Amino acid sequence: MTLLTIGLPVHNAMPFLPRVVDSLLSQTYKDFELLIIDDGSTVNSNDYRKSLKDPRLRLLRQKNGGLSATLNRMLNEATSPWLVRHDADDFAFPKRLELIVDHLTRFPAAGMFYSHARYWTQEGRCLGTFRTTPATAGEEGKTTQAGNAQASW
């Protein structure tokens, strides 16, 4: 059984989508499903979608329902024990999935992982690496255990 499903919610993601998908399909860890859910895009990406032939891909299309509806569908459609959420305008470092699987092995009781993000300008200049949440790991753990996933920005 495949351990990971990469969930990629998409809405009008061109011109980023080809580079994003390539960064995911080129991962050093190869055993995953890439679930792309197009949430009613109005920008034409049909030619690009039709060009995708990788057997790890599953492409679904739905009427525009917003991000929450797309993420809920993603949870229902995932075929693996772990769902890795990925945004349609974010590029993945080549070892992203390899590192996730390593942490899954090292911390089998964990229920969720998150990481830092590196932000870039359109000109290719790195603005820095930042936490994806302003909370400390301890605060995030308490929030998750309490069942309240809302972040206070």
Largest sheet: 4 strands, parallel
Q: What is the 3D shape?
A: globular
Helix fraction, binned, reads 25-40%
- Enumerate the strands of the largest sheet in spatial order, edge to edge or round the barrel: 3-2-1-4
Order of helices and strands: EHEHEHEHEEH
Strand coverage percent: 15-25%
Helix and strand content put the structural class at: alpha/beta
- Termini separation comes to 38 Å
Helix segment count? 5
Compute the CA-based radius of gyration: 16 Å
Average residue pLDDT: 84
Low-confidence stretches: 147-153
Instruction: Write down how many β-strands occur, each being a DSSP E stretch of 2 or more residues.
Output: 6
Short note summarizing the structure:
The chain is an alpha/beta fold.
Keywords:
two-stranded antiparallel sheet; four-stranded parallel beta sheet; globular; 153 residues; alpha/beta; disordered C terminus; single chain
Describe this structure in words.
- The protein has 153 residues and is α/β, with parallel strands linked by helices.
- 30% of the residues lie in helices and 24% in strands.
- The strands form 2 sheets. The chain has a 4-stranded parallel sheet, with helices on both faces. A two-stranded antiparallel sheet has the order 5-6.
- It is globular.
